[in-house]
Amino acid sequence: MHSDVVIVASAHRLPRIECRGGLAARHTLTDTVHLISAAATPLGGDTISIRVVVEPGARLCLRSAAATMALPGAGELTSRTSMHLEVAGQLDIDVEPTVVAADARHHTAVVVGIEDSGVLRLRERVQIGRTGEQQGFWSGTLRADVLGQPLLRHRVELGAGAVADDALSAPRACISELRFPAGPEDSNAAGRSEGSVCLELAGGGVLTTWQGLRL
């Protein structure tokens, strides 16, 4: 199954939403949209494409109604999600975690373009396995540009077969958060989170990451 979601936020009006496939989106507040599963997705072989456009002067908060459960399909283990963000206003993305269950393999790719007045908070949480499960795999790439210039190129792998996988001990959960622009309070708050790493980006903004066994 292929699912498409397009959300366009403009100043002084409700965001425009277009959806097809197994993923839907609904207005929950004037400036808030929740993603909602309309069918079991992603299964192995599924692809999800999400495009978010925030125009100058607009604000959008993107949330989800529940965690995303990536499951193996009958004949395919791998599913994929791509997200394209065009940020000229204020965009805040903090969806519920992605859980990669059983021996599923899930790949996510996020591409961000931030314009002159753009403000972004992008938070992602991933958990390999339900209780007692260790064999899933997830990879995530994040590419962010500001005014067409590179801000960040970031890639993480978790789970069975990942670069950092180890039979004795290896992370099975990850949280990452990108803020642009960022003030002093962002760096200080990140530093107080036990086990997290805060990276101040040369082009502005902050990337905070954490890895462990369970969210």
Mean pLDDT score: 94
Largest sheet: 10 strands, mixed
What portion of residues is helical? under 10%
Please provide the count of β strands. 17
Describe this structure in words.
- Helix content is 4%, strand content 56%.
- It is mainly beta and 215 residues long.
- The protein has one domain.
- The longest helix is centred in the last third of the chain and has 8 residues.
- The two termini are 29 Å apart.
List keywords for this structure.
215 residues; mainly beta; 10-stranded mixed sheet; single chain; 4% helix
SSE blueprint and pairings:
Blueprint: E1 2-9, E2 16-20, E3 23-29, E4 32-37, E5 47-54, E6 59-64, E7 68-70, E8 78-87, E9 90-94, E10 98-100, E11 105-114, E12 119-128, E13 137-146, E14 149-159, E15 173-180, H1 184-191, E16 197-200, E17 206-212
Parallel strand pairs: 1-5, 4-6, 5-8, 6-9, 7-10, 8-11, 9-12, 10-12, 11-13
Antiparallel strand pairs: 1-2, 3-4, 12-15, 13-14, 15-17, 16-17
How would you briefly describe this protein structure?
This protein is mainly β and 215 residues long. The chain is built from one helix and 17 strands.
